[in-house]
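=== Discrete structure encoding ===
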Amino acid sequence: MASDLLFMCVVVGWLLLTLSIFLTLFSRFKHTKFKQHLFRFLNVVLLLQTAVWVIYVMNTSDNSVIGYWSILASQVICNLLCYMSVKRRIAKIKPSLDYFSMD
């Protein structure tokens, strides 16, 4: 029973990772608000992935734990890409003082 639940969590982890990668690639064509919401979503997914990984490590003693590292590493990369994209987009739209004249 516990192994079935862990297997289901790993499958859901892979599905969430696939969704995260797809949305991160798709966000290249979207606006800042979408990217900010995506970044929040990716943070929640990373938190869930980490919680599942901790439960998986506690209940598994074989070498299959190494396979879950790929899920976590890929999720962290998605989060970093989205974070850099959001920061870059915010920096582009933030007005600077060069555009205002004091005349």
Observations:
- The helical segments are 2-26, 32-59, 65-93.
- Residues 92 and 98 are 14 Å apart (CA to CA).
- The mean pLDDT is 77.
